[in-house]
Backbone:
C-alpha cells in the first residue's frame, strides 16, 4: 500500500516508493529504496521537500498515533547487505580544504614520478616493484581520510600528456574514498587503493600511437585498447604478494552489470564489489578529464550521465559513489537561485546540497562579478542546477583555491 507521509514520520525499515523532484531536491541515485541506515534517514529528513511516498508492502508502516516509536538505532535486521566486512573506525578530524590541498599537491607531485617509473618498467617488460606504490597508497589514504575533496579535485586537473599516469592516482584516491563510504576495513581500503593505482597498468602493453590517438580508433586499434585488461592481469600476476583485489580489478573494471562489458561479458552477480567500484571510479575520472580527442565534462554533468547509464553500473555502488564524491563535486559549475554562477570549492559530507561556492558571474547582467565565497548552508540562496559555462561565453572557471 502506498502512503504519502511527512519527513518527520520516516523511520528505519521503511521502503521509499518515490521522492518528489529531481536531483536538486535529494541526493539519492534512486527514488525507490529501503531506508537501512541512519545516514540515509537523516539525509532524507534534511531534504528540501515536505513529504515522500512509502510502500508499506515492502517495508515498515508508520506507527499508530497512540504508540511511541522505539529509539532509532541500527539493529541486526538493518545491517549492511553488501559483501564487504564492516569495521568501526576512530573518526579522523576533517582538515579544511585549503590546508589539505597544499598537502595533496605535494603528494600528487611526488606520485607522478613514482607511477611513471612503475609503468615504464611494465612497458619494458620488467617486473613491477610495488614497494613505492604501497607507500604512495598509504599517503593518498591519509590525505583522503583528512579531506577527500582536496586530493581528488586536484588529481582531476591533469594534462593530456600525463593522463595515463595521473588517471591512476585519481582512481586510487576515489577507490579509497568509496571504500570508506562503504565501510570497508583498513586492509580492504588499502587493497582498493592499490587496485585503483594499478588498474590500467595493462595499457603499457598498448602501442603509444594507439593509446594517444586523437582520431577515431579502427576496430583493430580498439581491440588493442580492450586487451589492456587481460594484459594488466598478466603483468600483475608476476608480482609476488600483489593480492587478489588488484588482480580482480585490473581484469574486470570494464565489465558492466548488464553483461555488455569486456573482456568476459560478466553480469552483475559475476562481478565483485571491488571491480564494480573500479568501473565507477575509472569512468568518472575518464569523462571529467581532458583527453586528446575531447574536453572533459563538468563533474556534475558526469555524475548525471553515469546515473542515467542503465545497465552499466551497480546501483548500490553508484549511490555510495555519489555520497562519497558529492551531488555537486568540487569543481562543478552551478547556477544559484539568485542568478549567479559559481564553482563549487568545498563541500561537507553531511550537507551535499549546500556546498561552499565561489560566485563569479551574473546571468542577469551577463557580467563578471568580483569573486566571493558563499556558504550555502547559511542564507537563502541555493543551487538550482548545474551550469554549462560555454552557454555564458565562459572559457575557463575560476580557481577552486579558497585562499
Residues:
Amino acid at each position: 500500500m502506498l502512503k504519502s507521509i511527512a519527513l518527520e514520520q520516516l523511520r528505519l525499515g521503511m521502503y521509499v516508493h518515490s521522492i518528489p523532484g529531481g536531483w536538486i531536491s535529494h541526493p539519492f541515485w534512486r527514488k525507490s529504496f529501503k531506508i537501512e541506515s541512519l545516514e540515509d534517514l537523516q539525509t532524507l529528513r534534511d531534504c528540501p521537500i515536505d513529504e515522500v511516498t512509502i510502500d508499506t508492502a515492502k517495508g515498515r508502516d508508520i506507527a499508530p498515533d497512540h504508540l511511541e516509536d522505539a529509539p532509532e538505532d541500527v539493529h541486526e535486521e538493518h545491517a549492511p547487505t553488501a559483501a564487504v566486512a564492516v569495521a568501526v573506525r576512530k573518526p579522523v578530524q576533517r582538515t579544511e580544504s585549503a590546508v589539505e590541498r597544499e598537502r595533496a599537491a605535494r603528494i600528487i607531485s611526488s606520485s607522478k614520478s613514482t607511477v611513471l617509473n612503475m609503468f615504464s618498467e611494465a612497458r619494458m617488460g620488467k617486473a613491477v616493484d610495488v614497494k613505492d606504490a604501497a607507500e604512495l597508497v598509504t599517503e593518498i589514504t591519509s590525505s583522503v581520510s583528512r579531506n577527500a575533496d582536496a586530493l581528488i579535485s586536484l588529481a582531476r586537473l591533469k594534462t593530456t600528456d600525463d593522463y595515463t599516469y595521473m588517471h591512476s592516482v585519481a582512481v586510487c584516491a576515489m577507490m579509497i574514498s568509496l571504500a570508506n563510504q562503504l565501510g570497508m576495513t583498513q586492509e580492504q581500503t588499502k587493497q582498493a587503493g592499490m587496485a585503483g593505482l594499478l588498474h590500467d597498468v595493462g595499457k603499457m602493453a598498448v602501442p603509444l600511437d594507439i593509446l594517444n590517438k586523437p582520431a577515431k580508433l579502427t576496430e583493430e586499434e580498439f581491440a588493442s585498447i580492450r586487451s589492456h585488461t587481460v594484459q594488466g592481469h598478466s603483468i600483475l600476476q608476476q608480482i609476488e604478494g600483489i593480492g587478489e583485489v588488484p588482480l580482480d580489478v585490473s581484469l574486470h573494471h570494464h565489465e558492466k552489470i548488464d553483461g555488455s562489458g569486456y573482456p568476459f561479458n560478466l553480469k552483475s552477480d559475476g562481478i565483485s564489489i571491488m571491480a564494480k567500484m573500479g568501473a565507477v571510479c575509472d569512468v568518472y575520472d575518464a569523462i571529467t578529464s581532458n583527453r586528446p580527442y575531447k574536453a572533459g565534462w563538468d563533474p556534475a554533468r558526469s555524475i548525471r550521465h553515469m546515473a542515467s547509464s542503465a545497465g552499466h553500473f551497480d546501483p548500490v555502488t553508484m549511490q555510495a559513489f555519489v555520497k562519497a564524491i558529492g551531488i555537486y563535486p568540487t569543481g562543478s559549475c552551478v547556477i544559484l537561485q539568485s542568478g549567479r554562477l559559481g564553482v563549487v570549492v568545498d563541500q561537507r559530507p553531511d550537507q551535499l546540497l549546500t556546498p561552499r561556492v565561489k560566485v563569479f558571474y551574473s546571468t542577469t547582467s551577463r557580467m563578471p562579478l568580483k569573486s566571493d565565497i558563499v556558504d550555502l548552508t547559511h542564507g537563502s540562496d541555493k543551487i538550482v542546477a548545474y551550469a554549462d559555462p560555454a552557454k555564458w561565453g565562459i572559457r575557463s572557471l575560476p580557481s577552486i583555491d579558497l585562499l
User: Anything to note?
Assistant: The longest helix spans residues 97-123.
